[in-house]
Amino acid sequence: MPKNREARSSTTRRVVTLAAIAGFALAAAPAAAQEPILGFTSASAEQQRAYEDAFTRGVSAESIGRNNRQLSRRTHLVGTAGDRRDQGLSVQKLRSYGLDVATPSYSVYATRPMDVDVTMTAPTTHRLAASEPVFPWQQHPEEVVAAYNAYSPSGDVSGDVVYANYGLPDDYKVLEQLGISVKDKIVLVRYGRSFRGVKAQQAEKRGAKGLLIYSDPEDDGFVKGAVYPDGPWRPSFGIQRGSIQYIFQYPGDPLTPGTPSIPGTRRIAPENATSLPHIPTTPISYGDARPLLEALGGPEAPDAFKGGLPIT
Q1: pLDDT digits (tens, 9 = 90+) for 95-112
Q2: Is the model's pLDDT at 270 over the cut of 50?
Q3: CB–CB of 214/188 below 8 Å?
Q4: How many helical (H) and strand (E) elements, i.e. helices and strands, does the chain have?
Q5: How many C-alpha atoms does 122 have within 13 Å on its Cβ side?
Q6: For the segment 281-295, what is each residue's pLDDT rounded down to a tens digit?
Q7: Is 124 helix (H, G, I), strand (E, B) or coil?
Q8: C-alpha distances in angstroms, 185 versus 72, 188, 212?
């Protein structure tokens, strides 16, 4: 399970995402152009429509695609050189549109992995991959970040595995009806139907000692269609990364609840942050989930628990 490097890193707020969203929303609205605009007089509504039409003409799938390819060409994990590079590209692009761009800095609490290691120890030994294989055409493979769930605590745990479908309350009710407890177990769940942080919280709430999350091919894989590199769906070795912070408690920097992470803001200790998970959580591929699922004992899984892998 993961060992994390905890860090406070200065990052800059980006407005490029907001601009892209606004442009997309406006591009979808021409059909309603002649309808009254709430909050505008007739004269000012005409001026607003002219502004929106001009803005819409400047937005295209091609330009969005070019910007997206440029920003995603290199790894840009928070607080790294790649993050600063993309921030600079974003500012440059927005200013080229004639926009005023502010770049205030925030010192936020973040985690990055030092080491991620998951091994199946029984009935056979199988070491799970911590990243995807490198393709011959791939550029800068050395920058690829090991698969991890941000804000997972460091830990070294071992135990029996219990499969809990999507890891949501109704799934645990089914396990309880089958007489299966996840207390002191490592829970294996699939991505989907809820935010990944909810899955970590539900496992933690029930006394699990660790959590593994994989993308089932029924939700994102060969069941949907052709997988990468032949199509857009996730291949057997693909691993979904992402934060498991309990943002439903409060969003933003875990150490500054309700306040901005700027100099002078009072910060709480990580152990007092209610938005931070307490059990190690790691994402894995469905190729690596398969041997874990195949080795499970107990009753046959209910139909609602069965995904795209040929396992009952």
Answers
A1: 988 889 999 888 999 998
A2: yes
A3: yes
A4: 8, 10
A5: 5
A6: 999 999 999 999 999
A7: coil
A8: 37, 10, 11
The CATH fold of domain 116-312: Glucose Oxidase; domain 1 (3.50.30)
Rounded Cα distance, 75 and 146, in Å: 11
Instruction: Give the whole-angstrom CA distance, residue 180 versus residue 178.
Output: 6
How far, in Å, CA of 89 to CA of 117, rounded? 35
Global pTM? 0.79
**Percent of the residues in the chain that have a pLDDT greater than 90, as a whole number:** 66
Least confident of 26-40, 131-145, 250-264: 26-40
Q: What are the angstrom distances between the C-alpha of 127 and each of 79, 81, 118, 288? A: 30, 31, 6, 9
Note the maximum CA span of the chain. Answer: 75
Q: Which of 193, 195, 204, 188 is nearest to 282 (CA)?
A: 188
Quick: pLDDT tens for 1-49. 666 554 444 333 333 322 332 333 333 444 444 778 888 998 889 889 9
- Domain ranges in the chain are 7-114, 116-312
User: 119-144 b/e with 16+ CB inside 10 Å = b?
Assistant: eeeeeeeeebbbbbeeeeeeeeeeee
Cβ–Cβ < 8 Å for 244, 197: yes
Residue type, 55: F
Sign of the four-CA dihedral 312, 236, 219, 249: positive
